[in-house]
Amino acid sequence: MHRPLVITEDHALLDDLVRIAAAAGAQLDVAHVPAHARPYWNLAPLIVVGADQADAVAAASPPARDQILLVTRDPDDPDTWRKCVTVGAQSVVTLPGDERHLVERLADAMEPDPRSGALICVLGGRGGAGASVLSACLALRASGDHLRTLLVDADPLGGGIDALLGHEEAPGARWGDLVAREGRISSSALQAALPSFGDLAVLSFHRGEVGAIPAQAMRSVLEAGRRGFDLIVADLPRHLDPAAIEALTRAKTTLVVATADVRGILSAGQVLGEARKHTSDLRAVLRPGVLDDDIATGSLGIPAAGTLPDQPRLTATLNRGELPRLGPRTVLGALCSSLLRDLVPAA
What are the residues whose beta carbons fall under 8 Å from the beta carbon of 220, sequence distance 6 or more? Predict the structure, then answer.
């Protein structure tokens, strides 16, 4: 894998950049003059040009490209933005103030096979509506279609979505392990740490006492998921905590599972009232009830995404630690495939 390139003759600045790169888990290729940079120019995922070499780089007329930063330690230099334009940089990084931003840019540059995963959130309109089952089945169906999928259990009191999948004993990190860390998480480190089954990685909770997920921890996981996965499915609690709100604000679509009866629709309406404060694309997945589907979705005021029929054998299957069949000819499999086609074009 190619490394970020630094072009500078300022040894003090280079020392700072080497230290910052180490914090990002990156090693650097270094050129003290533009001529030494030629072999790396088109290959480096990111180029950092010291302000001391900006004019020399411009004079060498290298091919235009993106992912170039101009770095300076003098925020008051009136010539900085001229140098930025001259060298073809996309932005200026001023040290030490922008150090954290540079760490993130270097870390992003070292991510293998970057992706741009879509986040789908799933909310239950009331307890027992089937949101966790739908979340798990969506993730299973997507991974079965060879989409690299991350299933995130965001409900500390939900009993563990890994148990729903029959994998509660699988080795790997849980929320408690990630909450203890601060700052950015690389997508490759996240994938390596979590329990994985083929193209599906699962983030759930340890058994026993669990605490709330800090919003910053959720943000770091979702950002890593976006970079490293094709799809992230988040099973959210009905009572929205800061972590759930963090997920909702990033969601491409949120599915609300509602039962088509009076109390189910009233309860789902209350959940929607809170969810609408944080996200815009909300769609209903209906469970059968006494109300007509059109009346139920009309009462909720959001479009219908599909129907999740009752399946008497599903609970027994899950309680045995077995996974439901999600083939295209099964009702549940057909629903998940339809949702994925609508929400994730690559599916």
Answer: 178, 183, 184, 185
Structural domains for the chain:
5-109 (3.40.50.2300), 118-343 (3.40.50.300)
Beta carbons within 8 Å of 12's beta carbon, 6+ residues apart: none
> Residue 5: phi, psi to the nearest 5?
-110, 135
Separation of alpha carbons 255 and 136, rounded Å: 13
d(CA 299, CA 260): 10
Looking at the DSSP assignment, which residues form a beta bridge with residue 69?
Answer: 48, 91
Question: CA angle 199-204-206, nearest 5°?
Answer: 135
Determine which helix (DSSP H) or strand (DSSP E) holds 49, and give its type and residue range. Answer: strand 47-50
Cα of 6 vs its chain's centroid, Å: 29
List, as own/partner pairs, every contact residues 248-253 make where C-beta atoms lie below 8 angstroms and the sequence separation is at least 24, other chains included: 248/121, 248/275, 248/278, 248/279, 249/278, 249/279, 250/119, 250/222, 251/119, 251/120, 251/121, 251/279, 251/281, 252/118, 252/119, 252/120, 252/281, 252/343, 253/120, 253/121, 253/281, 253/282, 253/283, 253/343
Cα–Cα distance, 179 to 154 (Å, whole number): 13
Q: Give residue 329's pLDDT.
A: 77
pTM listed for this prediction: 0.76
- Give the model confidence (pLDDT) of 182-222 as tens digits: 667 888 888 889 999 999 999 999 887 778 899 999 999 99
Residue 255 backbone phi and psi in degrees, to 5: -95, 130
